Fold each of these.
Amino acid sequence: MLDLDFEIIGRTWKYLFFDGMAFTIELTLLAMAGGIIVGTMLALARLSSFTPVSALAGGYVNLIRSMPLVLVIFWFYFLVPYIGAWLIGSKNPLKIGAFTSSLVTFILFEAAYYCEIMRAGIQSIPRGQILAGYALGMHYWQTMRNVVLPQAFRNMIPVLLTQTIVLFQDVSLVYVLSITDFVGAADKVGRRDGRLVEMLLFVALVYFVMCTLLSGLVRRLQQRVAVIR
Amino acid sequence: MHFDWSIYLQLSPDGQHTYLQTILHGLGWTLATALSAWIIALLLGAIIGTIRTTPMAWAVRVGNTYVELFRNIPLLVQMFLWFFVLPELLPTAAGDRLKQLPNASFITAVVCLGFFTSARVAELVRAGILALPRGQRMAGTALGLTLPQTYCYVLLPMAIRIVIPPLTSEFLNIIKNSAVALTIGLVELTAAARSMQEFSFHVFEAFSAATVVYVLINIIVVNGMRVLENKLQVPGFISLGGGMSAGH
């Protein structure tokens, strides 16, 4: 039986929150924004009547969804410098920081999940709405932007936010690249001072409180945005 | 960037197996972990999920807390809690025995994934039971069945069929989530690919192998479950299909 000493948290909480948690939250919010935008584009592509586009988007989404996030993190960690070099036409792989690399990874990974949510949202819009848009003389993009997507987005806000809570928890997996997110910071300090047990218990408590509060908020939001039909 | 696919047949640093064999070895650990954990998850999840639909308020509260606890802590942190924290919190003798277990990382991964997934299964089972028309429960009561009998003969048989499609994706999730066990030293599929990449420097070949295997597992499981779903279908009832939910 070990004697627990939580005094270490009093000494290190500034580092844990201002370095670790700040990284986690920043990555979560940016990946959410990027993921929803890319995911919505993917959803539109998947629903496209032009087969090559829908097949390509569907293939990407299914591929990403059948891989573990850890493997995707490894993949992109090595691929992103090459993709970057290819994008700007450079011969040598780019040097890319840990934050950018993991941001690209999470945007492209979560986009596959957000895509399925947005697709369900778009498909829940009655067909008549799209036809009405066309009847008013709008073209495809106008109909999507002004009629379909706002409703689909509104209907799916609770699910999108729940997925974001999942993303918030998933960010902890950047641990495999030795990046200092919240878990990474606690792990480093805990190992250095021989207080890993206290640190991990504290990390679990913080995540539990934050995620419980957030999912409670989502539940309340869900009741408020529900459209009565 | 150049590819050399013959790398799979070269000997890995252990001097006995080719890289292909080490990848397949990793696949074995992935499947063993996922399947063992799945048994725990199904049993616990079915019990907790059922409890959460009973009229006993205290039991519902216990079930809800259980689900919240395992859903609101990241899997990685849960892995660490089971692996690093639990042995320290137990009495010294028991803790030391845990640490000296021959397959500590495998056992920890199974227990951790089992509990983690059981909370998700519980959520699905609860939703499945609540999706049944109220009349079914009332009919059971009206026939003079006790509460356990109503569950056993009326509610659960239908609820199980409703939850099979979402359970399929949860089973795929447990296979994917087993990759997190590499952080506590289990050499499963992703870790095998990772070590192949580290020793051979063939990044793309190593990760492609793991990716192809994961995709194949996915295809096999999805098709297998579809067959099962059709076999179990009750004539006259179309499956309700899972609603849209977040998760991995």
Amino acid sequence: MLEEIFVAVYGAIVIAYVALNIRKGSFIFDASKSIPILIFVFVLASVALALMGTPPAEALEVVMKIGAAGILFAGVAPMIAATVGLFRFNDEHGPSIFYARNHITGVIDVTASLVMIFVGILILRIDLVAVGFFFFLLIPFSGNALANAYYYTYHRRLEK
Amino acid sequence: MSDFLVTLAGTAFFWSALIFLVALTLAGLGCIRLALKGEAITSLMGVSCFTTIAGAGLYLISLPELFNVGFARDTAIALLVFGGVGTIVFARIFRTEE
């Protein structure tokens, strides 16, 4: 029961923090400062657990798995935001709404690939990192190809 | 203490992955809606996004720390790679139709 309470509180904090960042439109704490601080906290927690008698490898695995859980929780808020956007922006906004939808699907793609990369790093699954990274490299090309095809097939004709 | 921590990490990872999978499913519904309406390129965009969601979800399912469905891994890799490449190819084909 104690574990579930911890997970609920941890998840609520991470999701709320990411949702606040999305609402603000920029980082509340700058990522260049917050990420090194987080890494330092996780290293400190691993050392503390090792000093308390937990085997070092197990302590590191526990801390990294909790970090991976944080990454997965962090991916929830952008996914929900993108879902709301996909349902909200309908055709009444005109032909240019395609580009807004293209951006929203890009958010989904980037969130999925970044979650795969960082979770793969933290649970030590290199195949997950490799596939996520390959997909991350493909995203801009597919988004650009879609926008390009839409412009030359429909949008330019409408403008004429 | 050690057993408690291992259980705690396992529980946190399981529930976070489960909640992320639910969020992926919701986004997948939006993508299906996008794929079923509008012109061909909007549909292609919806399908492309859905392959991403299905691939990421299947890859998470295949992890031994979660559900350990081994065969889902190959499907996930195929979806992620061919989904992206197929989107680019079909977008080029649609573009040259003009």
Amino acid sequence: MPVSMGWLREAFAADGYIAGDELLVAVYLALRLEKPLLVEGAPGVGKTEIAKALARIHGSELIRLQCYEGLDEAKALYEWNYQRQLIHIQVAREQGLAVVERDLFSEEYLLERPLLKAIRARERPVLLIDECDKTDEEFEAFLFEVLSDFQVSIPELGTVPCRQVPVVVLTSNAERELSDGLRRRCIYLYIDFPDVAKETRIIQSRIPEAGERLAAEAAAVIGLLRAELQLKKRPSIAETLDWVRALTALDVAKLDDVTVARTANVFLKNRDDIDQVRAKAPGLVAKARERAKLPRE
Amino acid sequence: MTGIGTSLTLNLTQFASLLRRLGVRTGTGEVIDALTALADVGLSDPALARLALKATLAKGKEEQEAFERLFDCYFVPPEAKAGRQEELRARAAAQAKQAAAVSRDLAFQGAGLNLTAQQIEAYARLSEEEQSRLRDFVAESAAGAKVGPSFQPLIEQIVKGHLRRKMRQNGRAEPVPLAPSGDPLLDDILSQAAGRGSASEALIHLDIAEIGRAEFAEAAQLVRRLARRLAGRISRRYRLTARRAQLDLRRTIRGSVSTGGIPFRLAYRRQRADKPRLVVICDVSGSMARYLTFILLFLFGLTSVVRTIAIFAFGEELERLDLRAGTELELQVERALASSRVAGKGTDLAQALETLHAQARATLTPGTFVLVVSDTKTLHAEQAAALLGRVLKRVRGMLWLCPLPESEWPPAAKLFAAVCPLVECRTIADLGRAFGKRLGRL
């Protein structure tokens, strides 16, 4: 299907992903220019969710490569099934059959890892390379090469070209700088924390049972905390959603200062931060309502 | 790229070159992408076109902020551009007049002080009383019996520091200087864009001693973030050695016993990350508390890649400080220095190093990295440099952070620079640079 801005906007909305113009333009360009999309932002702002939403929208397979310290080509691209090769040799020996090297390095013994799987997929898949800032420089250079050519060389099998250029989404928590080479290859998107109105819509779309008032008040309180308190870890959208789910489970329909103080441990994950919020709880909800310009009670 | 005219291509190329001068790493590939993107989204909706350029030209949070500032200054209607040019001509004439007047006002033994346009403007904005105080200060300093032209840079620094403080008080922080391009309009656009930098950008380039209490929390947050980023880079380096996984033959063969001698499961050797121990030797004379606080905030942020941090204060003697990562580090440093027996006395690095050698030798191992924080003003500098060389032989590496601008380093600094790397470290940006370059050697 030809991609257009209007179509993309509707598709994201239908999927329940509340996307602003900035996000839509970046995704649109990545799809149109067939370039990887590099998404940066604090943890929990919905970076990974973009790839998941894209896979659902296109009805395609989501192939995920979770990056971590020490990830290497064998885990990301392909490996030979060593144990199976050994068994083959043993069985052949016992049966008095000759073992030909070509048999051992054939498709049968190839363990496809996410990158190779994405390159060989028949339908255009969505390849999510998650938290790519966790890998090391060597792997980043390798990734850069794969994303440039979309083909890989397996010495025993030859060059494997790409059947369909996958939709590639790379995410990073910006804990460290990615190389210029990798950045150059990508369309860039930075996702910041949403404003109160947008976060209210996100809550309503994800937890409709929360009710309009609770959604607006929770978004207003979180917005105030992020903006005005020096927190060690600011609450993310995912934590806001957890909090609203917890409040809904507790049958809370509207917020008050005592409830915020009592449930602060759901959206804050640091003792100093929790103490700080509890100390400032008196008058917090009223202040948040005023700041977000919510209608008077 | 149909539909994209030559003038737009030229404008975009010029825009990209201005972005580069603001520190955004934009290459030709990005400009081509931007043109392709513009051809795709079209120009009918300016907001969409702006977002398309942003996604293709600026690839980082700070870079996108710089993009936004420059975009607002650069893409303006032609009539506004012409008006701005006229304004600039008039302003240049007025500035020249103002500069001549200030140069006469603040003359040091007949020579005008070397001030930037922003500093001259800041002086002109001062009240008559404040101007006269500054004038008197320069005149009195110049009139001393043994005062020669060599004192001018020192007086200049004091005047500049005063004017910078005034600018900040009035919310007009001095922008990071940019090299002029020769085109006054482009230079004006650039200085406007640079001047609109966020408060955190200004803090990064501010002398640590000038960071006020109100800005402390934000600055501390910036330092922690910087440390976290750099720690990521350091931990990556360790893996370069760990990644070269070698087959552990012994374990593989032992494991093969259970499978009849067939090495079914391969065991690999993995090297342990070699985390350094940090020893910080800090000069506690003068106003070092603030520098020490920030450097420690930074070092404590590196704990994931550092084994231990031992902190010593020195004046005439050496004393170990008990400081720990956590909240209220600023208060901890203040208290530690207030109760320190070495604070507020003279500075003798040589004596301090002798003590370190004699009493804390165990901390100096081949796995130790030594960090000296001092303005290099010490008694017995030659002896201290020799002792520093001795310490360096015992440890993995050494770095000297000096909170003075390089132009004000005393002659002794040369002696120390010959022994170990000596870098200016007055701002948070300096701190990042100093460590960023030396991560591999930590």
Amino acid sequence: MTDRLPHAPPFWRDARVLGVVAQALFVVLLVAGIWAGRAIVESSMARQNIRLDWGFVRQPAGFQLTALTWTVDLDTLSLKHYSPEDSYAEAMLAGLFNTMMVALLGIGLALVSGLIVGIARLSRNWLVGRLGLVYVELLRNTPLLVQLFFWYFGVFLQLPTGTPESPPLTLFNNLIVLTNRSLAIGGVLTERFGRLGVDGGFQMTSEFAALVIGLAVYTSAFIAEIIRGGILAVPRGQMEAARTMGLSYQRALRLIVLPQALRIIIPPLGNQCLNLTKNSSLAIGIGFADFLTSAMTVASQSFRALETFTFVTLAYLVMSLAISAFLNLLRARLALPGA
Amino acid sequence: MKKALAYALAVAVTIAGVSYTVSAQAPRSRLDVVRARGRLICGISGTTVGFSFVEPRTGEMVGFDADFCRALAAFINVPSVEFVQHTSASRIPAVIAGSVDVVFRTTTVTYGRDAQVDFGPVTFYDGQRLLVRTASKIRGLADLSNARICTQTGTTSERNITDQMRLRNLKFELVTFAQPKEAFDGFVAGRCDVWTTDASQLTAFRATAPKPIEFMVVGQEFSDEPLAPVYQENDSKWADAVDYTVYAVIQAEEFGITQITMGSEGRLKELSDKDPVIKSLVSAGDGAVVRTVRAVGNYGEIYNRYFGPARATAIPRKGTRNALARDGGAMTSRPFR
């Protein structure tokens, strides 16, 4: 308890009392606002005859998309192969699984290539520096969807089709087979509908490859600039001191400069990882069954667009928050003690 | 402190304002909304050859569906049409949300969809078939074991092919695209062995291939796809406008009234004086039918403009349900009295 001052102001002029009152008032208004908002949504949905009904998620999906492979069995919570008899919810989870795969692989590839290009941009070699510049400017100044179309229609679908005129590329006695449908490892080469293709084995489809490479290459241009900026932000003296101590350029970069740059670049790098994850929804343009594609199919087959997209929004939110949380953790670990 | 109060006040005022406008809104027909706006917002595909596509020479949006949008604008006497491109998956949510007034986008009427939106009269009777490489020896659904199949996401085509393949217990792979153009490109590039969707689209896109002879439409129609306009539920005034636009162009064809006939006042007067039925057609809705047919022609003229025998994207009409009822088809109007 604090002693009241002899000249304590009346309570209506006491900043502490007023503060509490204002906060209480704000909470009341917030609750009223949420309640009113809910009432508005409910009444306008009733007016348009829309009722939220989540029962549909357990109905059988009845569709089979190429890339939907793994999903979670909602009854036993175990991993299983997706099939059209599975429910709408499981179909969407299969899509979510694909999106996470694309995001993880894409982020990994983007970080590696971004790092290489970022360092190349700083090279004293004129040619290497210019090549880095062209790479960055070309990729970050054209729309991602156009780039995805380029990778898919312009690169991967131009690979051999498997007809007698353009036979598939094979390596190691048909262990690895490349057609414009997939890169297959360890499958059986069979002829079907006049074209050679592969059954079974590990298959990476053209859609998947185009999406991952397209996303990674696009994002790596931004990451390269972030890394270049991060390295430049480390005082020159650090590099000079390291070189004076006899470290080679590579070792100085790796041991002295990059660890310090990392601290600076984590937040913007996190943004790029989030962007890549969300941009993966452009998969719908090139026929890859990612989370959004399978959710769109679910929405149009079940006519439950509102419920489906509520789920889609929440799932993307959770994914983004998870990435943010991970990066925050990383930042906390890397922070200078006491800083 | 003052800031917090001001903020709270602003929130309260906004909420009160929004709830007032929402609750005070009287149900208004879309017809009044469109007339007040002076512009019809029409949902189409925009990349479906024959139905709605950009004419390369003029840059204009044309096609069977696009012409019906223009017909509707003329019918309700609204000067302009704004075309909004939608994918198969986005068209029905767009109608429900009200961001488009009507959708003419090769949409199949189904019982399930009718629970969410309303449908107008059928403008085109279609059915699902297969587009294959001539060399592939696929001639029907039974040959599709282990086939890779391209189609569009969110369509009845996607559902039908899955059902048919499961019925036959055949293994298959489905690659789905957002738009028919991309599905077709993927198929031509060899990603799939088959492209399946409504036969009209297969025929129209086949004609645009570098060598159409390399591809052929095969198999029995394995689904019934009556394509019709889509609009919001429970708005009968707007429903009447859309429905009678379709009926107007069909009726004009039934009476043999063409765009040229409608354009000539003298000829119109002559016909109306001779036949009271034509007189009521001409005078209906302050000349709504006259405006409509002047804008786009009658049903047969619209059909022939995009699918006529002279076009690359020709689709035979004779003997199909798209012929007039008196020729054994299913196209029929309602009396304009």
